[in-house]
Structure prediction request, 1130 residues.
Amino acid sequence: MSAELALRGAALRAAGVTAGYGGDPVIHAVSVRADPREVVSIVGPNGSGKSTLLKSLVGVLRVSAGTVMIGDRDVTNLPPEEVARAGVGYVPQVDDVFAPLTVRENLEMGGYLLPRKEVAAHVEQVVTIFPRLGAMLGRHAGKLSGGERKMLAMGRVLMLAPAVFLLDEPTANLAPAIARSLLNEHVRRLAEGGATVLLVEQRAKAALAISDRAYVLGGGRLQLAGTPAELAASPEFVRSFLGGGRLV
Amino acid sequence: MYYVINLLVYGAVDAMACLGLSQQFGIAGVTNFGFIIFQAVGAYTAAILSMPPDTANGGFQSYLGGWSLPFPLPWIGAAAAGALLALPFTFLVGRRLRGDFAAVGLLVTAVLVNLLVTDYRPLLNGDAGLAIVPSPLQGEFSPTSTGYQWAYVAAAVALAGGVYWFVRRITESPYGRTLRAMRDNDRIADSIGKNLLSLRTGMLVAGGAIAGLSGGVLVGFINTWSPAAWTYAETIVLFAAVIIGGLGNHRGAVLGAVLVPLAFEEGSRFIPNSQNLPPNLIPSLQWVAIGLLIVAFLWLRPQGLLPERKRVIAVPARSAAEPPASRPAEPAVSRPIAAAAGHADVLQAVDVSRDFGGVHAVSGVSLAVRRGTLTGLIGPNGAGKSTLLALLAGTDRPSAGKILYQGQDISGMPAFRRARIGLIRTFQLASEFKRLTVLENLLTAAPGNRGDSFRGAVAGRRYWRGDESAAISRAEAVLGRFGLTDLANSYAGDLSGGQRRLVEIMRALMAEPAVLLLDEPMAGVHPELARRIGTALTGLCSEGMTILMVEHELAIMDEFCDPVVVMAEGSVLAQGTMAELRERAEVVEAYLVG
Amino acid sequence: MSIFLASVGFGLITSAVLAIAAIGFTLQFGVTDVLNLAFAAVMTAGAFVAYWLNQSGVSVWIGLVAAMAACSLLSVLLNLVVYTPFQRRGSSPITLVIVSLGMALIIEFGIEAQVGGIDVSYSLGQGRTFQAGGLVLTTVQLVIIGISVAVMAGVHVMLRYSRLGKAMRATAANRTLARNCGIRTSRVIALTWALTGALCGLAGTVFAIDIGSFGPTSSDLFLVLILAAVFLGGPGHAYGAMLGAAVIGIATEVSAAFITPDYKYVIAFVALLAMLAVRPTGLLGARA
Prediction:
């Protein structure tokens, strides 16, 4: 795969990002970074702001403070279509495919920014990586199973061979076996192929298993950061998931 | 002289029509683009009831009926016809159809009916319409005499006043509050048990009767009625009037009636008639002006000239600093739970499973909730917590297994019936009525209020005053328990996110649950407010209520819940206090693996 | 038999005009979620642009092109200046519908203020008459049918094969996801209104040609036929609109011939109300 879809990663730098849904901010002064050939995970308990962080990075939510850089390009608060053009491939947690369109058309939409002649070739490459999709090219995306939809969603972002992949809980609602396979075989390979991968996950252990570095988010703020080994050894790690103190 | 009389009668008729529309659209949110046909059916009914058979007068008109009925039967018939016409349209206003689609359906109907009447001459004399419609009592009095004309004005104005009295009576009752709640958010109104179809049908019928009456009054005055008088564009004029006057304010509706239909009708008389202008210029410009006013008002001042008033209910001043738990609150559980025959486990899931096409959301879960406990239900995403809650509450049915309530098998019982026997749940998503005050939000959920029906509203304040006072007291007690008395008369939409979550819990309490199922009540809530909620919930449990709470914020489990049940991947993993659970490896594993 | 064929002939014309309009209307709804009840008014504007040019000696067929351009511009402005601000503010769908009715009044009666209440018609030769069995059609009618077929084919090709067409379908299906793919949805939406506006102008002019004598309010009734066709096929689905137009167009004319001409529109209205009651997503739409 990596030989065919030449992936060239760019560095992602989010510094001091504060963002929310209009009222009070949900995340405060969060700084994360991810480099090419790295899988970086953001884990944390539910409601900690992980999805909000990703949405603010791709322009779906407004950033009220802080900056987001892709390479040396400032993409803070750019509209989502411009962030995509800057080389970011984003897979949302829900509503991740065009339900009324066929699988092939979904992939073609993923390749919207490509020159016309190259679209078919890229579809072929994606099908090589996800052979199941190849058998279903004519089927409407709304009729796919959960696992198949996720594959299609990932295939869609692969079409553009973006420099940075942002994945929002890619294993949500997937059976554990499929989840592990998705993470190990596909997500890890993206980084091995040269891209930058930033991953938000609820399945902390599974995510750490494929990550080079990880951040722990809690209550909208960065609680911990480090390599998987460092985090596993830290007692705070478990506590940040399972609480243990009184209400602040 | 005749000019003033004309003005007053038209004004009264327009006011009646606008009040009917204000009730339907402004208060209840029913967008009836076919409103004008209800006025038309009233006019035609009054006409054919009061006219002689169509063979009379040389038979130059052709129409149904013709029974020469005396006054006031034609006017009564007009109102009745308007009311009856509403019934066939109820299929358009049930809960399944998008509001704008339903409105389009009514618009199309208005055009169709106008077309049918125009084309089918034997029905109502087609395009030419009906002429020589008798005025009321024209046998006894001379309709052209000044005395008669002024009497007509008096009758019309009196009826308009009566309509005003009637719609206010309906609006300022608990039933009116329910209508406004439905207008605000019909999905939530539906979920708290309001019958949308019946409410909207009631509004169509009431508005139809008023519109019909207005038609009857008008036709008796102008003695003629034709399809040109009731094209669908006339409905737009009335909508413009109600929007400009003020949506949700009946005085605004009257103001709108004066400003729009009347002013346009009369104002054009004063514009000098010039030979150079194209003949249709003034009427055309009137329509352009109405279109402009509609768009301008909806953009600049959507609340209209006289906005809807906030309904403030006097609440005795309480010190906000008083710690809520220390006040002797009214027992929230007034529904007796038979202690003697009572099961200690008031709610049970017995080997319950729920499959969604191959995915086992819940598999083989057995859970027993003891009376008087505040039980926590935790687990990572996808563990099946929300599904289990839905099965216990009745919003979903198990694929296998049983749900027992007080020992009774309720597995097949739908949610609204479980609510009636005291098993009530809250929802995750925001579900308050933004344009009702906090107190009104709570009152919408008070069961057994006699004023919360059409008949009750019409019967008047004396009929429902007792139930309403009792509900207000209970609402105040609930507010006090959570320390939110200060917010009683604030619009729910103005509250912070956390406070709005509270409104939902309080509303659930108004329904007097014996067992309360809370779905993430603390989501997005400030820690201090969360503590206040937790304390209030603990207080409720000590008074006999049983609460099961799904939550992510584990610090809350530490402080308030015992026992805590952990789920993962569709099954129950363990049960105990939060501290105990933290020690168990499989719990830690479940949370980290996800 | 010949009555039947003759009525089918009428039905074909009605369907042809209806198809052009219904496709435009339904695409506007699909991509923007607005029921643009000012559509018929914009059609009328197009018809009158062609008329005014025709009065100065220009052929109606050239006037038709001018009408398409004018209505294209008018529609883009309508969406940009009126509908989008209301939507951005979070107005309810019913507010948008009332606003569109207000705009319809402004446009339609603005025209009437100019031309007065008398009906007008184009100077246009009807050409030869063709007969096939009982079917009788003039050259002009055949041209209209031809234009309609071309439009349907063109829309099909555009939606299925062109980049813009696919972007339109993606935007209608999931606007945020479309943006994540790099699609500039605001541009796609503007282009959609420009295109459907052109269809609107085209529909207005051929409608005026077909009915012969027309005035500023002639298209009011036609709006209801458009709504019937759109809801029958499913709001937002272009192919549904084509199907709906065919059914409504032919059904109204055949029922006029066989049941009674007085109520030929009844079928359309009954179909619309029945669809709303039973299956609001239309025949080709997804199950609700």
Q: What stands out?
A: The CA atoms of residues 477 and 539 of chain B lie 13 Å apart. The first helix of chain B runs from residue 2 to 27.
